[in-house]
Task: structure prediction
Amino acid sequence: MKILAFGGSLRSGSFSKTILNESVKLTPENVKMEIFDIGQIPLFDQDYEKDMPEIVKNFKQIVKNADAILIVTPEYNYSIPGFLKNAMDWASRPYGDNAFEDKPAAIISCSTGMLGGSRAQYHLRQTLVFLNMHTINKPEVMIPFVDKKINNNELTDKETKDKIAGIIKALADWAERIKVK
Ligand SMILES: Cc1cc2nc3c(=O)[nH]c(=O)nc-3n(C[C@H](O)[C@H](O)[C@H](O)COP(=O)(O)O)c2cc1C
Result:
């Protein structure tokens, strides 16, 4: 079982990047989780969707090879950051070659505010519907006041760790359940 994880934010000291890194540590031993850094992906340009930059080709192939996808997102203006949507737009193209097609998925959101990025999470879910991904509904993991739960790029909050471990296990179980035998 291979889970591809991506998201975070570009800034150094990003809390969502820490959550992404912690997710790897909280992945069970029988599951492999790898992070892809989408920060270097250029802006989507449909003129190049049939001859994509190498980094995008690489990202698309890694998405295709994954058994499941974990997306960790902060909330930007009630939605997801532009660079995250941008990476997903590339990998969904050209029409008929959507790398996300049929992939099991889970979302973790976080924010320094009290709603934990829930609005970004529902925006993202809407996109995943169009990409024909199978996103688990529960457990929902929305991490509020994330800045109070991280110290020196380490997640210190036990309850949040348990929630992250829970959603990763649920994603791996779900991916196993819906796998074509
Ligand atoms: C452009 C921008 C927009 C933001 N909009 C929201 C928002 O709509 N809701 C919210 O709860 N937090 C919002 N925040 C605060 C983020 O939750 C907070 O900066 C968070 O730490 C960003 O994630 P990061 O630490 O991974 O960079 C916003 C931050 C930025 C930079």
About this structure: The mean pLDDT is 97.
